[in-house]
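User: I'm preparing a small set of examples for a lab meeting where we compare how different chains pack in three dimensions. I only have the primary sequence for this one, and I'd like the structure in token form so I can line it up with the others. Please keep the answer compact; I'll paste it straight into my notes.
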Amino acid sequence: MKKLGRVVGILLTLAILAAPFLVWWQWNALYDWYLLRGYTPPAAIISLADQDTFNSYTKHLFYVNRPLLLNTVSSFRQYCPENENTIVLGCYHSGQQGIYIYNVQDPTLAGVQQVTAAHEVLHSIYARLSTKDRNYVDGLLESYYKTGLQDQRVLAEVKIYQQTEPNDVMDEMNSTFGTEIADLPAALNTYYAQFFTNRQAIVAFEQSYQGEFTQRQAQIAADDAQLASLKSNIDAEEQNLKQQSAQINTDRSRLDSEQSSGQYQAYNSQVDAFNAEINSYNQGVAKLKADITNYNNLVNTRNAIGQALDSLDSALDTRLSTQSAQ
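Assistant: Understood. Below is the structure token output for the 326-residue chain.
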């Protein structure tokens, strides 16, 4: 009996000693359980996770952060106040303390919320990387940024992060590259494949809503080039008509003089040529009017596209300074 009691005592001691190590190793699981207690993800949040093809681990971290879709700039900025004069569409609170997503209302920009959700959950994932894994991923990101990244828009985004969040550039590149670039080096693809069953679906969302901007910007650029060409032609036509008008006035004065002085033969010999001048001038005036009409119509079309582009910009504008000015 004493032996048995001693064995039990030893086991209890071992259990007590092991408890801190069990808590250490299971800390994330315990912490996540605490954060998830009583939480049921809303249908809209489940839909985002499904559309972004989150695997079970990524869904778990997404839900741990109790993500919120916020419909107004004021409510969104209550949770994402940083860089309040910069356009942001989502934020992640460190320590798995929340993911907040601006719920863009314009249906033309469908896909923004999906990309934002994926971007923010990658911050959550990056925060859970071990020091060894993070150093490895950082090396992949840095190498691609320096030697492989060609997308000028993404390069511009990184430049902004370098200015606004210099201590978190790697974290931001991790989220940006994973959600916005289709063709990545094999090692980065393998890394992101741990979290998404089809990362290209997220990139497709990004390309879809970015395309709404780029196609309009391209059309405006094409219209501006065409307007410049039309304006040059109109200016040339107006100058030519002025010269024709001056010549017609000169020729009319000569004909009037010949007629009044009785030089009928000279007068009659020039009437047909003079009438041809008048016809040419009238045709030029008609063409000028048509070109001016085309120019004005294209201006209206171009401005309508510009207004649509402004509307899209406004739909994504979460700057508090802009909102207060409206």
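A couple of notes for your slides: Residues 211-325 form one domain. The radius of gyration is 35 Å.

User: Perfect, thanks.
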